Amino acid sequence: MGHDHEGQRVSRRRMITGLSLGLGTLLGASSASAGVRTGGSAALFAGARACRLTPAAAKGPYYFDSDKIRSDIREGKPGVRLRLAFRVQESETCRPLPAAVVEIWQCDAAGIYSGAEAASIKATAGGPPSGDPGPDPEDWADMKPADTTRYLRGAQVTNGAGAVEFTTIWPGWYPGRTVHVHVMVHFSDKRVLSTQLMFDEALNAKVLARPPYSGHPGRDTLNSGDSDYRDDMLVKVVEDGDGYLGTIVLAADADRDGG
After folding, report:
1. Torsional sign, CA 209, 214, 218, 223
2. Cα(238)–Cα(199) distance, integer angstroms
C-alpha cells in the first residue's frame, strides 16, 4: 500500500457514514465538552435565521481534502480566538442532519492559506491565485497541496442534533476578498453544500486593528464590495472571553433534488 494520504477523505467519508453512530456520538461529545451543548449557543442557534437553503458560493482555488478530523484547527497560528458553532439541517424539512461531514478552511491573519503558502503569498501581493482558470471560479479543481502545512483546515461530523463546533482564529484578508471562512458539507459521500461565512464589518474593523492583523494593513474589499457576499452568510457573533463565538444554521439540500 502506498503512503500518499492526500485525497483519501472520500474513502474515510464512506467509513464515517457507515460508522456514523459511533463516530458521530464521539465527536458530538467532544463538541459538547467544547460548548455546543451550552444554553448560550443553543439560544443563538434558535434565532440564527429561518430555515431556507443556504446560498452557495464557489469553493475557490484553495480547497483540498486535508484529511484532518479535528475541532481545533489553529496549530498555534496567532490571532483572535474564534469558536464557530454550526447546526446543519435539511433545507426541505428543517430537520437536523446527523452524520454529515463539515469541513472549513480559511486564511491566517496575513491572508495565507496552508497547503498553498507560495500561491497565497503571491495573491496577497495582488497576483492571481495559482491555477486561476478564468472568469468562472466554479471551474477551479480541487487543489493539489504544494506544501505540507495544514493549519486552519479541518473537518467534524455532526452529532444527532446536526451540530459541530470548531476553534479557529478570526480570518485575515487578501486582495479582492472580504474577510471569510469557507465551508463545505458532505452527506452520504456527496458534496451537498459549498458556501462561505462572513462577519459584521464593525467587528472586522475592531479585530483587524489588533496584532497580528495590524501588521497586514491596506484591506481593499468590504462585504459591500465582495461578489460572493450574501446577507444569509453573516455569522451571528457574541463576545466569548478573550475571543468570539459565532453561530450559524446551514441548510443543505441533502438529497440534491433542488428543494
Report:
1. negative
2. 11
Q: Which domain holds residue 151?
A: 9-252
Number of domains in the chain: 1
Please give the angle made by the CA atoms of 246, 58 and 229, to the nearest 5 degrees: 50
Closest to 142 measured CA to CA, from 228, 61, 88: 61
118 domain-assigned: yes
In a domain, 1, yes or no: no
CATH number at residue 92: 2.60.130.10
Distance of alpha carbon 240 from alpha carbon 33, whole angstroms: 16
User: Are 189 and 17 a contacting pair, CB within 8 Å?
Assistant: yes
CA atoms of 6 and 40, how far apart (whole Å): 38
Instruction: Evaluate whether residue 242 is within a structural domain.
Output: yes
Residue 258 domain-assigned? no
Kindly report, residue by residue over 143-202, the tens digit of the pLDDT: 999 999 999 999 999 999 999 999 999 999 999 999 999 999 999 989 999 999 999 999
Q: Which residues contact 195 (CB under 8 A, 6 or more apart)?
A: 54, 55, 56, 57, 182, 183, 184, 233, 250
The answer to whether 196 and 182 are in contact (CB under 8 A) is yes
Q: Dihedral of the CA atoms 142, 148, 150, 151 (nearest 10)?
A: -130
Is the entire prediction scored with pTM above 0.90? no
C-alpha cell at 18: 457507515
165: closest CA among 51, 254, 43, 32?
A: 32
Q: In what order do the strands lie in the sheet with 190-197?
A: 153-157, 101-105, 181-187, 190-197
